[in-house]
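Attaching the record inline, Q. Sequence:
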Amino acid sequence: MKIEKFEMMRMQCLYEKEVEFDLSETTVLPLRVSELLDGEDDVERFIANELYYPESEGSQLFRERIARFYMDCTPENITVTNGGSEANYVTLWTLLEPGGRLACMIPNYMQAWGLGCAYADGVDAFLLVMQKEAGQYRWTLDVEGLKRAVTPKTNVILITNPNNPTGAVLTAAEMDAVVDVARKAGAWLVVDEVYRGAEVQGGTTPSFWGRYEKVVITSGLSKAFGLGGLRTGWVVAPPKLIEELRVRLDYLTCTPSLLSDHLGTIVMEPQRRESILARTRHIIRKNLPPIEEWFLKRDDLFTYVRPEAGAFVYCEYKLPINSTELINRLRVEQSVLLTAGDQHGLDKGIRTGFGYDVEKTLKGLDRVEALMRSLK
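Structure, as predicted:
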C-alpha cells in the first residue's frame, strides 16, 4: 500500500521548533495541567493514579461527558482515541474500501485525502469557494460541485466544519444540502468538528450529529480546547460502527492514555467545558482585530476573508510564486513558518495562526511582508 507524504504535517514536524516565528499553529495558548486541577485534593488524586492500562474505549464517565456535548448521544456512541488524527485515521480505515471512492471537501487538512488515496480507489474534490457578499468575502460551499463529486462509487463524504484552513462555518442550508447528497448516495458522512467551540462570533457551531443515520463525527481536545498535549480525540458514531472501530484500534494504540483520560474527564464536565471554550473564544476575539487590520491594510498583497471560527486566517496573495516555494523561502530567509495553500489543496494562499502572542505574530507577519514586497 502506497502512502502519500502528508506534506503539511511533515513540514510542521521538521521545522516548527526551529523557526523564530511559528505561525503555523491553529489553536490558542494552551492551558496548564495546574489550571485543570482544583486545589491540593485534586492534585493529590491526580498524582496518586496508578499507571495501569485504562479502558480501551475510554472510561465510562469520560464517554458520558463527551456524549453530553451532542444531542441524543450516549456513551455507546463514543470511542476515545489518541488525538483527533487517530480518530480520522481509524474511521477512514474502517469505512474506505477498494472499489469505493472518497468525496473530500477542499480546502482541507489533507489527512483524509492521503488516506483516501491509500485505502480507496481515489478521491473526488468538492470546493469551498470564495464569494463576495454585501461587500465582504466569505467561503461558501459549492453544492453543485458536491453533487458532481459524489458518484455511484462514493461510499464516504468528508466534511470539515468549522473548516481548516479557511475558518468557514457551513450555514444551515449548506448542512442540509450535504446531508441530502449523502442520503441520496447512501454514503457515510464523516465530519471533522475539531474546531467546534472556537467561534469568532456567537455560540458553539451546530453539530452534524443526529442529522443522518450514517453520520460519523471526529473531534478532540487539541484545537477548540487548547489541549493538544493531551493527545485526546474521539469518534461519535452508531454503536455498531463504534464496535468496528474498536477492533481496528486494537491494532493501533489499543487504549487512550490513562492520565489524559483523567484530565479529559475533568475538561468535559459541562460547566468546565463551557468555561474552557469561553476562554478560547475570548482569546480569538481579542487577537483577531489587530491581525485583521494588518491584512486589510495590505490589500495590494492579500485578499482577506474573515474566519468564522478557529485561531487562524487563510488569505490568498497576489504574487506570481507557488505557495510552497513562498513558505519555504519565508522559513529559510525570515525564520517564519506558515502553511501553504497547496498543502491544503489550493494554491496562492497562506494560513496564519494567531492564537498565541499577538504582538509576536504581528512581528512575524512584518517579516512575511518584507519578503513578499521584495518579490513584487
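The two ends are 43 Å apart (CA to CA). The mean pLDDT is 96.

More tomorrow.
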